[in-house]
Amino acid sequence: MAASRVFCLLALTISLLSVIFTVSGHNITQILSQSPEYSSFNSYLSQTKLNDEINSRTTITVLVLNNDAMSSLAGKHPLSVVKTALSLLVLLDYYDPLKLHKISQGTTLTTTLYQTTGRAAGNLGFVNVTDLKGGKVGFGSAAPGSKLDANYTKSVKQIPYNISVLEINAPIIAPGILTAPAPSNNMTELLEKAGCKTFASMLASSGVLKTYESTVEKGLTVFAPSDEAFRGVPDLTKLTQAEVVSLLEYHALAEYKPKGSLKINRNVISTLATNGAGKYDLTTSTSGDEVILHTGVGPSRVADTLVDETPLVVFKLDKVLLPIELFGKSPSPAPEPVSTPTPTPSAKSLSPTPTKSPSPPVAASPPAPPADESSEEAPSDSPTSSENIRAKNAAFHVNTHAYFTAMVTLAATSLFL
């Protein structure tokens, strides 16, 4: 009997491991690379880094365009405009062919990746999905007066309820979406309006602003500390001019790396100040949808995205990035000794007391059962979270391990009761 129970527990463990590896992630680039008819769409996802944003999310639907349908966008608009148009084709929910034809009341509005940019006024960040007569499903902008200009044509790939890839026959065009945004030529003005006046002033007086501007064309990521972030930092007046330049260059990357790319980053990141292996670099970790930058001295949170117009992205930070090369590693505070006064024994304390049996451990509440794949409703979208990259555990998330441990513990308890 004992051997049978052990065998059952082993089988359950293997099954749970299989589930974990199945839902651990997806790669939209690899999925689309198997179908040459989506090569143009796939290429633009990579150029705009939308592939990273898609891969960083756990529940998502991608409406893909074949090469003929992409011809209305490809090469006819700036890359920033193409990115906006494609972000309307990324739905932050799971839709497979079955769910498309079982939409409540036949029509619904669903959130898109464009809505998360903060630039979508009104309903521009939503898409209308309508189950039409004759088995057709139409897609269109949720803006008032918009038509259902795109139709579902076929299913490409599903990993329930992780990612669904569906083909539509035309792009979804929201009002004004094909208009190129005004270029952000004046970075100083942008930073000052965003509450980063101290950082802007340092860039201008040091000459590093010109370095930033000369890098923009090929790709630039700027981490701009807020004015509040400079409070409590070490005295920067003690730095030499060369060290100030290194500090400011440390706050930028010579590549376009939007938030989605930072969220899935697993490698050490070189900055403009990097001048050799392991010098002036950064690592990242995530907490929910937040991105944290690590310097070796202390963490800094990406508080906001000020600009995301390919090939430039500017983030606002809540703390100044302090490179270990300039400020050294912060020592861990030593634990304070706890002094416990020795009580004076009393006559009552000298009397023997009966030994009390320890209370049995309280069993942990079992986790919620996994969603039934036959259910019409998909689980809500939740951002992927990962541990600090320095822990070298980027392949799996903490909550996955906790779920796995809880399931095995529950199974073992059930088997041996």
Draw up the topology in text.
Elements lengths: L1 H22 L4 H6 L5 H9 L2 H6 L4 E5 L2 H4 L8 H9 L2 E2 L5 H4 L6 E5 L14 E6 L5 E5 L8 E10 L3 E6 L18 H7 L3 H10 L1 H8 L4 E6 L15 H9 L2 E2 L5 H5 L5 E2 L10 E7 L2 E5 L4 E11 L2 E6 L6 H4 L19 H4 L47 H19 L1
Parallel strand pairs: 1-7, 8-14
Antiparallel strand pairs: 1-2, 3-4, 4-5, 5-6, 6-7, 8-9, 10-11, 11-12, 12-13, 13-14
Helix pairs in contact: 1-15, 8-9, 9-11
Characterise this structure.
By secondary structure, this protein is of the alpha+beta class. 30% of the residues lie in helices and 19% in strands. Helix 1 runs antiparallel to helix 15, helix 8 (187-193) packs antiparallel against helix 9 (197-206) and helix 9 crosses helix 11 (241-249). The longest helix has 22 residues, at 2-23. The radius of gyration is 27 Å and the shape is elongated. Residues 10-24, 336-406 and 408-416 have low confidence and may be disordered.
**In terms of per-residue confidence, which ranges show pLDDT below 50 for 5 or more consecutive residues?**
10-24, 336-406, 408-416
Query: Going across the major beta sheet, what is the strand order?
Result: 2-1-7-6-5-4-3
Supply Rg: 27 Å
Instruction: Sum up the overall morphology in one term.
Output: elongated
Portion in helices: 25-40%
CA-to-CA gap between the ends? 12 Å
% residues in beta strands: 15-25%
Report the strand count.
14
* SSE order, one letter for each helix or strand: HHHHEHHEHEEEEEHHHEHEHEEEEEHHH
Number of helices: 15
Assembly form of the protein:
single chain
The pLDDT mean sits at 80
Structural class: alpha+beta
The main pleated sheet reads as: 7 strands, mixed
